[in-house]
Amino acid sequence: MQKLFRWASKWWPGLIPLAVMWGFAAWNNTLPVEADLSARSSAALKDTVLDKTRIAVDGRDVSLAADAFSEEGRRDAVVTVELVPGVRLVDDRTRLVPEAKPFVWNAERDVVRVTLSGSAPLPSMKTRLTEAARKEVGGVEVADQMGLARGAPPRFEAAAMLLLDQIGKLKDGKITITDTQVNLSGMARDLGGREAIAAALKNLPEGFSIAANEVKAPPYIFQAYKDPVAATVTLTGYVPDNNVHAAIATSASRKFFTEKVVDNLKASIGAPASFNTAVVAALGALSRLSTGTLVVSDREVKLSGDALYEGAANDIRAGLGKDFPKNWQYKSEITVKPAAGPVDGTVCQQLFSELLTKGKIRFAAKRADIDPDSAGILDHLIETALRCPTTDIEVAGHTDADGEDSFNQALSEKRAQAVIDYLVKAGLPASRFTAVGYGATQPVAGNDTDDGKAQNRRIEFLVR
Amino acid sequence: MPYLVSFHLGWLIGSLLLGFCMGWISVVQRGNGTSKVTARWLAVLAAALVAASFAHVVPGRFGYWLDLGLVMFACYLVGCTIGAWLRDRVVSRSQPAA
What we know:
Chain B: The chain crosses the membrane at residues 6-27, 39-58, 64-86. With 464 residues, chain A is an alpha/beta fold.
């Protein structure tokens, strides 16, 4: 041992080159050591849930700054870095993310984008919510403006995911979760969207409740356009169901006797009450116009176009409102078509015959009450009669062979008279018209088929 | 420690070799070494530095340099001891009669 001390007393000169080596070693290795420890610390923290993580290494001391989402998470992060081989000290600069009170989360949709804002409880959830929104609205930009905060109610993610499913059903609007209260506002994209959203909200996770659901349904629109050039009536928009659809289509084909009905209607829920009655009445008014557009939007009916003569215009302006249910609104912009030039009796006769070949004046069964569906053809007949003011016209009524002759005779006379009354009411002089009833004596087809009978029941206009 | 050793292995081997050489020479070197008092002071200094290192009182890079210096110094001492001991054996074998 003494020997060792003796030798050791002579070891000091070696300290000089050792110090030089030490200097070189420190010079060469400081930065690599710091970079290596930084990389190892980052790798160790990869699986921990932190936000705004910043790692600074000074020598072998690591300064860790980060926002943690729980006290436990914060402690775990510090311990994880402390356990990284080579780390000497950890300067703990972590903190908990602030708690949001109340915890608010928003999803807002406008024309061009979906914006997610408010707070999300975890970064991974923030990503999942953004992804879910992207998937839901496919192609529309999703802007993520969510911050991170503690204090989310339990089952927040399930609630937010369910509400994000609804954002696709909105045209525009906003969905907000405030603690456990859910608010919705905006306009549904499609008819029925509002109802679908309301149904989906019943599946909100336990604890969440709807504070307000102010999602509006888009207007229920029905449109009809009468185009005299193409001789078509185009029906577009919605009808409540197939029964109403069939009823409207049948009614339209009866009212529009010269035009082809182009039916582009779609069935959808959400129709206002008395939709069928209102639309049928409005189509009746449209059938009296030479050209026109009918728009039924929710409970508002707009009719614009040209009537065939002044009396019809007044009648349509005044009369249509009466046919609608009480809480419906009616707006009309009816002008009168410029009167066609006068023609002589022969042309008038030809025009009457053409009109009565294309369409028929209809009556209630076995009675002389004119069916309202015949208003269109009567307007055309009146317009024609106005073009030959000097002629006298015989209005002839015919029936089929069913029933007694005397009854048919009387019915044909009454029907002819009913037509004349209608014409007179429209402003034509009564002196120009004579009512004649022929009963079943002048059939134009056999009375053995329904089709033939229908052809025999008719009104004819004969210019004298 | 294992990290420091593995990261600076080359430098530590260098220190060990330097110590080995110094130890090898010290056995046959004539003249006086450091005095007892100086040696004691040096030992106290070394102990203080070791204590400072273990207590982590020196922060940041200086702390790292201190640890590195001490590890290199330890290797140097080990090298010196081995060198001196081997040289002593060689010397005592070659001069058995003396």
